[in-house]
Amino acid sequence: MTNIKAETALTAQSRVATSSLTLLLVDDDQLSREMLAIQLGGLFKHIYSGADGDEGFQLFCEHSPDIVLTDQIMPGLSGLDLKRKIRATGAKTPVVLMTSTIDNKILLEAINIGIERFVPKPFDFHQIVRTLTSIARETINEQLLEEHRQQEVNHLRDLDAYNSLQQESARRKERHVVRHDLRSQALKGAGGVRWGINIAYSPQDIMCGDGYSVRNLFDGRQLIFVVDAMGHGMSASLTAMLATSFFNYQVENLHLWGTFTLRIFLKRFKEYLASMLLEDEVLSCAFFLIDLVKEEIKTAVFALPPLMIRGLDGSVRRVRGENPPIGIYPSETRISTISLTNVADILIMTDGVSDALLTEGGSYREVLEADYRAAPTLPALQRRFRAKTEQVIQDDLTLILVRRLDLDSDWNWNVKPDVTLSAVKRTVEEFLEALALEADVAPGERAELNIALTEALTNALEHGCRGGRNDGESQDRGEEAALEKEELLPVAEIVFCATLWRGAKKPLLIMKVCDNGPGMSAAALQTVIDDISLHDSGLRLITRNSEVVFLDEAGGCLIMLKTLEGGGACAH
Fold first, then answer.
1. Burial profile 224-247: b = 16 or more Cβ within 10 angstroms, e = fewer
2. Residue 372 belongs to a domain
3. Sheet harboring 397-404: ordered strands across?
4. The CATH number of the domain where 550 resides is what?
5. What is the mean pLDDT of residues 193-221?
6. Contact (CB, 8 A) for 350 and 210
7. In this structure, what DSSP letter does residue 124 have?
8. Helix (H, G, I), strand (E, B) or coil at 519
9. Which segments of 342-491 does DSSP mark as H helices, in order?
10. Alpha-carbon distance 428 to 417, whole Å?
11. Distance set, CA 218 to CA 191, 215, 286 (Å)
């Protein structure tokens, strides 16, 4: 009676351990196979039976059982061979080997290939049950652990997807908050002199501590705001976004003020920050009120790096801000005035530029002035920055260059080409030959200029002189014959002029292509440039092969800037 109860208890425990699992039983002895299948049938969820190793492997591939119980000596694949083939699939399914003889060679081989247990034949049913029950518990524990691991993986994957979604939303919000009302737009000042504002904004993380806004005011002046929040991550990003948003809010409501003064604007801005900043938090920022009619800029700089100002004669000076960073406690605000009368350009930057680490040691501020003296455009300065600094995530980078676009020069080139495609090609060739006599032009730069000028003059011909859609899409070169037959506007005219300004160590080539067609807006120009689907559009080719592009107010004059690096060109 005691033995019967013990057997019943063992069977019940085994059933609990094995009831959710499947078993593959492989034995060439039909009687042993059928007897085992009957005896173990009540323990497993399902039992698959194979008459030899080959059939057993086929059943394994079809059903992926949880445990394999196999005889060793069989026709075809032996039990060890079956284990090898199962192992080759990458499966970790436990295999129990039934064998009548276990010599040292078989034992060593079985251990090496990962046989879980041995059951001697003739077998003891209770021993098989105990062996399978033990393996079943281990298998269930491993399955539970793997399920837990998978749940963790799925959770992390879902969390990553959620974080990616939130990060992209944050990035879109940051792009929405920063503003540039004057992208690609040339501004006219005193004496008809044109100016342009170029920005290089490089967030190093989703949560960017830098921000900027360039706004056109209701009275015709321009107001630039640059912010560099303390620290990194979420806190710095929120501070920069809130500060930039409030700046934009104030600008958009200036028409309600009647008369705008920078001092009152700053007073309200600082009052807002005092309510928003933490007690131990400060903000570095700067404001620039540009009046091109008066040829001056009023500045209020709060703990940003010094401004770099280049004169028309090429001289460079630094102008330091006179205000400490803004905190929650009130402080006096000093406003300075910079005359633009003899200024070629002004460089504004955040700490991420000056504090960047050099690959040779030290910080970029040590070589900044030398690079600025050499580089008359932001892309040229960026090339030098990238070549000298460590290419690792350091800090957010913001650079703004306010540049005069009309500069006196000792070399000028002017022509009014005939409004034909053949004249356009001839004009480009003649210009490049003349330029080569005046400046060191690298072969790559010559090729880029060829593309940019050909596209600019062709665009003027297509959309200006022939009245086509002014969307920046150049005519298919295979349709040149058809283009030549199109009627010109009654007063069709193209003017191309270029100047070579040597105020920086590397010459600045300023090219202007003007037509008397309907023109286009700077916003339309920027839309075409930003639309990556229009990768072959004329305007995208122009911007890719020159460095900076502006449209004058009328929209019929395209201004292209390019630094001539020459034979010792800084890598593009």
1. bbbbbbbebeeebbebbbbbbbbb
2. yes
3. 187-188, 194-202, 397-404, 343-349, 307-311, 316-319
4. 3.30.565.10
5. 85
6. yes
7. P
8. coil
9. 351-354, 365-374, 378-388, 421-438, 443-459, 480-485
10. 10
11. 21, 10, 21
Provide the 10 A C-beta neighbour count for residue 408. Answer: 9
Report how far apart, in Å, the C-alpha atoms of 417 and of each of 81, 434, 467 are.
85, 16, 18
Counted domains in the chain: 3
**Residue 189 and residue 293 in contact, taking contact as beta carbons nearer than 8 Å:** yes
* Residues ≥6 apart with Cβ < 8 Å to 90: none
Task: Assess whether the previous peptide bond of 518 is cis (omega < 30° from 0).
Answer: no
CATH for 295: 3.60.40.10
The last residue of one of the domains, among 404, 431, 449, is 404
Measured CA to CA, the distance from residue 261 to residue 254 in angstroms comes to 10
Residue 241 scores a pLDDT above 70: yes
Q: Quote the CA–CA distance of 112 and 106 in Å, as a whole number.
A: 10
CATH code, domain with 139:
3.40.50.2300
Closest-CA residue to 321 (of 349, 293, 279): 349
Q: How confident is the model at residue 498 (pLDDT cuts 50, 70, 90)?
A: very high
Does the N-terminal peptide bond of residue 122 adopt cis geometry, omega within 30 degrees of 0? yes
Asked whether residue 255 falls in the same domain as residue 360, the answer is yes
User: What is the Cα–Cα distance from 478 to 482, expressed in whole angstroms?
Assistant: 9
Q: Report which of residues 230 and 284 the model is more confident about.
A: 284
User: Which of 319, 388, 350 has the alpha carbon at shortest distance from 225?
Assistant: 350
Q: Are 478 and 500 in contact (CB under 8 A)?
A: no
Q: Assess whether 334 and 386 both reside in one domain.
A: yes
Q: Single out the residue in 337, 372, 404 at which a domain terminates.
A: 404
Q: Give the domain extent around 521.
A: 412-568
Does residue 251 form part of some domain? yes
The reply to whether 165 falls in a domain is no
The model's pLDDT over 104-142, given as tens digits with 9 standing for 90+, comes to 777 778 778 888 788 888 778 888 888 888 888 888 888
Tokens standing for 403?
């540049």
List, for residues 21-76, the tens digit of each pLDDT value. Answer: 899 999 998 888 888 888 888 888 899 999 998 999 999 999 999 999 988 888 88
Is 449 in the same domain as 395?
Answer: no
Residue 397 structure tokens: 């980078």
**Matching residue, tokens 């090429």:** 314
| pLDDT at residue 370, rounded to an integer | 96
Question: Do 396 and 426 sit in the same domain of this protein?
Answer: no
- Residue 38 located in a structural domain: yes
